[in-house]
């Protein structure tokens, strides 16, 4: 059987030919994407910040800026479904047609939703003030870690996780759907999520960045059940993995900032 032997010149020419033939295919594949840019508003036309916008087919996520704008790039051309969520607003979906190499412009409206909570009594301002006095008392005791309103205002964070990054032992990682996952390094259990509380109420399926920093009066973080106030030490929870207690802004709170 005879063997075909190519010279260096022939080999070089063959490689160049194959490369040239493959280039249009690669370019065509790279060009089969586009982008979407948009603005998210509420029902009154106000632009909403910190809305989580996800292209569900590729699990790519962005958040709206202070002007309610967002951009998602590198999306497959064709019809894409966008999923939007923000605390206190009803989740929404929207379909957008994306052309190859183009940016689609969209405007999306979110409606406010009244979340139904079991056995909740609307608290008056004095009661909320009492809660924040208890927050300050615990802060002075030195158990756990605390984020105050004045610290938030001094740093101007885009996300609440930007403040949590300063907490020793707090581990923040992006999850597959673009949401930020919080864990405490002291917890030895694998994938052990801390329990979240909002205004003293236990919440589920919550991410640290679901709460905009502008809505926060204070945050308490505990790496485990040790030091956790008894009223939050619920056996039907994951407080053994840590606890994050978020207190929302108190309307008309003109007390001296800490």
Notes on the protein architecture:
The protein has helices spanning 8-30, 125-141, 149-155, 161-164, and strands spanning 33-42, 52-55, 60-63, 69-76, 78-85, 92-98, 103-110, 145-148, 170-174, 180-184, 195-198, 201-203, 216-222, 243-248. It is α+β, with helices and mostly antiparallel strands and 258 residues long. The strands form four sheets. The protein has a five-stranded mixed beta sheet.
Distance between the termini: 89 Å
H/E series: HEEEEEEEHEHHEEEEEE
The shape is elongated
**Which structural class is indicated by helix and strand composition?**
alpha+beta
**Number of domain modules:** 2
Name of the CATH superfamily of the largest domain: TonB-dependent receptor, plug domain
CATH architecture of the largest domain: Beta Complex
Can I get a quick summary?
The chain has four helices and 14 strands. With 258 residues, it is α+β, with helices and mostly antiparallel strands. The protein starts with 7 loop residues before the first helix and ends in a 10-residue tail after the last strand.
